[in-house]
Structures are given as C-alpha cells and as structure tokens.
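Inverse folding, one chain.
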C-alpha cells in the first residue's frame, strides 16, 4: 500500500467512525453524573436547595447576585469547614467532599453565607475586615430567616441563650465550635458591641494596615527587606508583619489603592443602626 492509498484508507476510516459516533447517543458530562462546576447531580441539587433557602433573605439574595459568576468546586477545605472561599490559584467556592451529600442544614447555610460574603468583596487577600463582614452578614441572615420560620427562630434562640450563658462565664468566641454556635455567640457580641466581631489575629491584617503600608512604601516596595524567614518586613528601621508586604503587593497588582477604596464594608453608621434594631 502506497502513501496515497494509506491516506485514503485513513480518511475512509475516520469518516466511518464519525458516522458511527453520530448514530450512537452522545454521552454528555451531565449523563456521567457531574455538572459543569464539578458537582454531582445530588450535590448540585442540594446546593440549589441551600441557595433557595438563603435567597429568602435580603442579605442572601444580595450575596448570591454578587457571587453569581464565581465557580463552585469540591476540594480541600481548611479548618474543617463545610464551605470556604479560595483565593488562589483562582477564585472559587470550595465545598468539602461530604458537605453536599445531605440536604442543607443551618450549619451548611451559615457556612455558605460566610463564604459568599468573603467572595462578594472581591479582595485578593484575607483581611480581618472581610471576616468581620461575614460575621455581621450571618447574624443578619439568622435574624431575617428566623422571622419567616418560627421553628428555626425558636431553635436559634435556644442557641443564643446558651451563648449568653457562656459569655457571662467568660468563655471567648474562639472556644465555641460549629457554625450555629459561633453565630449565636456572634449575636450576643453584636448586641453588646458590634465591633467585638472583629477577632484580632496577627496572621491576618486589617484593610487599613495594608492600605497604609502600600501608600507609604509602594508601589514597587524596593526599600522593604524580609527577615526571619519572611515573618518580618523591615523598612527604614521600622518592623512590620511580613504578611503586609505580600498582601500589599497583591493589592497593587490587583488594582491598587483606588480600587481598594471602592470596596464597601459596613461603616459605623450601618453597624449602629443594625445593632439598635436588635436590642
């Protein structure tokens, strides 16, 4: 068989195979049990139900609209969470592999509210302000959702009473586990002083700290030197947490301080009006 004959034979084989493929039913990813976002049919159905539940509230509808185009994936979720928002390598909502195997629960709904809140801000780094925003949103969601579902409100009020007892005994928020329990504890803190929902940690900076650092030493950060395996940043004799340099560089590449100023967190007036309504 010559080269020309071989080409003709291969062409005929390809056409023949193509004909067979059109005659057979085409198998789509959905028929294999997975949706485009990597969730199985069961997981996707449970997620839709959770989205329907949180969309009964104003804050839930807002967060779902703001995060509509962020993809959902099953993945490794840190700190034993059911749901988390991942920044790198690409922005995405991550669900624990078992989180969506069962119908949604208050634990799951609250975990989802937290992840959507952080995702909705669009920041490329973790900040205390982002977590504060998520905690406020979860309290507001519980109050609004409870107003529509008496049994839910009754169950949550019992959690709040338990949290109030713990608070009076000097138990801190970090010692409370579970999304229900943490949010109940957060409601107590919110009523006492809403800014108590800021949980100060050396590992995560405030937006104002990143902003100040970038404004002083950016945009190229040429005078900053990292020491102690990157834990400290030294500039002009001053010592800063090393994470500030990393976060400030990410903010500059993301769009700079001008874009950062466009991010809307809760301001003082918002917080005061919310906390007064709940007293």
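Residues assigned per position:
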């Amino acid at each position: 068989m010559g080269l020309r004959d071989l080409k003709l034979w291969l062409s005929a084989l390809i056409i023949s195979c193509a004909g067979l493929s059109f005659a057979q039913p085409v198998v789509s990813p959905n028929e294999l049990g997975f949706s485009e976002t990597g969730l199985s049919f069961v997981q996707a159905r449970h997620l839709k139900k959770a989205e329907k539940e949180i969309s009964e509230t104003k804050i839930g509808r807002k967060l779902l609209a703001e995060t509509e185009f962020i993809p959902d994936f099953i993945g490794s979720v840190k700190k034993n969470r059911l749901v988390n928002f991942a920044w790198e390598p690409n922005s995405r909502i991550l669900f624990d592999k078992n989180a969506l195997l069962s119908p949604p629960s208050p634990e799951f709904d609250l975990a989802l509210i937290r992840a959507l809140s952080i995702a909705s801000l669009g920041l490329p780094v973790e900040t205390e302000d982002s977590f504060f925003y998520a905690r406020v949103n979860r309290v507001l969601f519980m109050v609004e959702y409870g107003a529509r579902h008496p049994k839910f409100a009754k169950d949550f009020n019992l959690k709040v009473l338990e949290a109030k007892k713990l608070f009076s005994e000097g138990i801190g928020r970090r010692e409370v586990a579970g999304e229900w329990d943490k949010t109940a504890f957060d409601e107590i803190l919110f009523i006492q002083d809403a800014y108590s929902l800021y949980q100060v940690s050396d590992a995560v900076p405030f937006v104002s700290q990143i902003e100040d650092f970038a404004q002083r030493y950016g945009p190229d950060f040429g005078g900053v030197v990292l020491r102690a395996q990157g834990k400290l940043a030294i500039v002009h004799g001053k010592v800063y947490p090393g994470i500030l340099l990393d976060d400030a560089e990410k903010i500059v590449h993301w769009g700079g301080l001008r874009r950062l100023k466009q991010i809307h967190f809760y301001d003082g007036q918002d917080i005061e009006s919310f906390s007064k309504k709940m007293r």
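The longest helix spans residues 3-23. The chain has a mean pLDDT of 83.
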